[in-house]
Design a protein that fits this description.
The chain is α+β, with helices and mostly antiparallel strands and 308 residues long. It contains eleven helices and ten strands. The strands form two sheets. The chain has an eight-stranded antiparallel β-sheet, covered by helices on one side. It has a two-stranded antiparallel ribbon with strand order 5-7. Helix 4 runs antiparallel to helix 6 (146-160).
C-alpha cells in the first residue's frame, strides 16, 4: 500500500510496510478528517539559551505565566478534590529561579511522574495512597480532564525552559499528524503483543505517533531523568492512531551513541528493540528528490489518500 500526502504546495508518496498492523492502521485512518499538523522539534535548546546569555524578557514572562498555570492546577486539585499534593513539590511560583535549569526540570520530572503513576494506578509514594482512588472516582485521568491538564501544563513549561542535557543528534523538525474523531472512545486502539516484533530503532520516515502519558527515552535523556521509572515507555498499550513524519530522523545515531548506551546500562535498561524501539509505518518514495528542511518548516498536511 502507498500513502500519498498532499501538502499546501507539494505532494509525496510513502511506501507503507507490509504487515497486518500497518494495513489495519491505514484502513482505520484513511477516511478520518485531519487535525492541524503539529510541528515538533529536536534541538539543542540549552546551547541556544547559552548563546543568548540567558532568557529574553518575553521568554521569562512566558515561563512564569506557565508556571503559575501549573501551580494553580495543583491548588485546584487540592481544594476541589481534596488531593494531597506531595510535600516535595514546589507549588509556589515565587520560589522558582528560571536560571536554575536543573531544579526546574527536577520539579517537572517528579510532578510528571506523580501524574502518570496516579493515572495508571501506581502509588507515587508510600504515604500517597489516596490519590489513585480520588483520580478514578472523579474521572480525573480521562483525556481532557484535570490530570491530563496537569500533564500538558508540565510539558508547556518544559517547552520553554532549556533541558539540562544537550541534544547533539542534529536539530530537525518532525510532524505529528492526528485525526478528528466523532467519539472519544475511537481515539485509542489496544496494542496486541503479537505485534511486538515490529518495534525497531532503525531509521524510518513514518512512525506510529506517540500517545503516551509518560515520556520516551529520548525525552528522558533530555530531561536528565531516570529511565527506569514506570512512566518511561515508547508506546502506551492503549495506542493512538496518529502518525509521525520524520524524514530527517536520527534514531539510530541516538541509540548507538556510547553516551546513551552507558546511560541506559547504568539504569539496567534492556538494550533491545522491544524496550527502546518504536512502531514504523513506512518510508518515503524518491526521498532524495525533496528539500526536507524546507518542507518540514513551511508546510503541513492538507489531505491524504491511500492507494492499494
Amino acid at each position: 500500500m502507498i500513502l500519498e500526502l498532499f501538502l499546501e504546495d507539494n505532494t509525496f508518496r510513502i511506501q507503507l510496510l507490509e504487515n497486518n498492523f500497518v494495513r489495519s492502521w491505514a484502513n482505520y485512518i484513511k477516511e478520518l478528517p485531519l487535525n492541524e499538523t503539529e510541528k515538533l522539534v529536536y534541538y539543542n535548546h540549552l546551547k541556544e539559551w547559552q548563546l543568548q546569555k540567558g532568557w529574553s524578557t518575553t521568554s521569562k514572562i512566558l515561563f512564569y505565566k506557565k508556571l503559575n498555570e501549573l501551580c494553580d492546577l495543583l491548588k485546584f486539585a487540592s481544594t476541589t478534590f481534596n488531593i494531597e499534593i506531595p510535600k516535595e513539590f514546589e507549588t509556589n511560583p515565587d520560589n522558582y529561579n528560571c536560571d536554575d535549569l536543573f531544579k526546574t526540570q527536577h520539579q517537572m520530572n517528579i510532578m510528571h511522574r506523580w501524574v502518570v503513576y496516579s493515572c495508571h494506578g501506581f502509588n507515587y509514594s508510600i504515604t500517597d495512597t489516596k490519590t489513585i482512588k480520588q483520580v478514578k472516582e472523579n474521572n480525573l485521568d480521562k483525556p481532557g480532564n484535570l490530570f491530563w491538564k496537569l500533564n500538558k501544563a508540565i510539558h508547556n513549561i518544559e517547552m520553554i525552559s532549556p533541558n539540562p542535557n544537550k541534544w547533539k543528534w542534529d536539530n530537525h523538525i518532525r510532524w505529528d499528524q492526528d485525526f478528528i474523531f466523532k467519539n472519544i472512545n475511537l481515539q485509542r486502539g489496544l496494542w496486541d503483543e503479537k505485534n511486538n516484533h515490529l518495534f525497531t530503532t532503525k531509521n524510518h520516515d513514518l512512525w506510529l505517533g506517540q500517545r503516551i502519558l509518560g515520556k520516551d527515552y529520548r525525552e528522558t535523556w533530555m530531561d536528565n531523568d531516570d529511565p527506569s521509572s514506570l512512566d518511561v515507555t515508547n508506546l502506551d498499550k492503549n495506542h493512538g492512531w496518529s502518525f509521525e513524519l520524520d524524514p530527517l530522523n536520527n534514531i539510530e545515531n541516538f541509540y548507538n551513541d556510547p553516551i546513551i548506551l552507558t546511560w541506559l546500562n547504568r539504569y539496567n535498561i534492556p538494550i533491545n528493540q522491544k524496550t527502546l524501539g518504536r512502531v514504523p509505518l513506512g518510508n518515503i518514495i524518491d526521498k532524495n528528490n525533496y528539500d526536507w528542511n524546507n518542507i518540514m518548516q513551511n508546510n503541513k498536511v492538507i489531505k491524504l489518500k491511500l492507494h492499494e
